[in-house]
Sequence to fold (357 residues):
Amino acid sequence: MHKPRELTVALGDRSYPIIIGNKLLNGGFELSKYVVGPDCLVVSNDTVAPIYLDALLRLLVGRNARSVVLQDGERYKTLASVAEVIDGLVAAGASRDVTVIALGGGVVGDIAGFAAACYMRGVPFIQIPTTLLAQVDSSVGGKTGVNHEGGKNLIGAFHQPQLVLIDTDTLMTLPAREFSAGLAEVIKHAAIFDAGFFAWLESNIGALLRRDSDLLAEAICRSCEIKAAVVAEDEKEHGRRALLNFGHTFGHAIENCLGYGEWLHGEAVAAGMIMAAELSGLASEDRDRIRKLIAASGLPVEPPPIGAKRLGAAMQLDKKVQQKKLRFVLLKSLGEAFVTSDYDESKLQAVLKRAGG
Fold:
């Protein structure tokens, strides 16, 4: 066991730690001190629970711990799943000092966090992400919520966790496709904020795909540092935090058009980043570097053939739209991003034609 790394999301009296290490769920971490009251509800899914739920419950000895196990998949990221969690809290007779613990990927974290935000107008919760995508992105920053048939993440709330506990050993059981999807968010962080980190990823992508534990911890830590710094500066996405949506305007629209679950979130974001880089007018060598790194990560470099018109219509539901005008996160260069509604419409249409139609 290596000594865990610890970062802080600095939000005044709502600050919280991110703990990154191995064997943390195997008795290597004192979780109970972050559980506010005597009761807790663990929310997981039917893929993760059989592997890690018992180990987590052993860390909660002395607490009244119950669990809710949801069905696995983006298509279950709905208000109905939030209701399942709230039903579990009600059945447990939970009061305001209950702690909701999310054990799983980004879908579980978003559902559990939103239920915690809603129950009795807000109860504490803890994030224990078990996928790379959740570890480097969705577990940090307090965004919670679910999808609507009209668009992704249209229903939600900001609700910061008490703790983000990242056990890198959970990545060893992650399917290859899910692992690659998580790398999309790592690449995103590098592309928008840290050209040096991007070059490091180019040099180490092979070892990361082999799941070298030391390099994984390094990549996760750097991604969380970037995310934590942005959240501390702009918690509720009034400005700089919007930069974290690089590739997501296209990506969310791809997910919406396909029906949630056919493409993983990271796969859609990967194709979306390439489209956003093209719209940016980025130097061809930088566009090529982004494309090559995404391809080397086992991710798609083209959108699915859903049609330009349909994709464009889905993009109108993006949360960055203001006064019916699309706003994009674009790149000036690798490591330097900006948000704009001033884009070349003809170039946008050319980019959308990647999706056919």
Notes: The chain has a mean pLDDT of 95. Residues 310 and 350 are 14 Å apart (CA to CA). The chain has two domains: 5-173, 176-355.
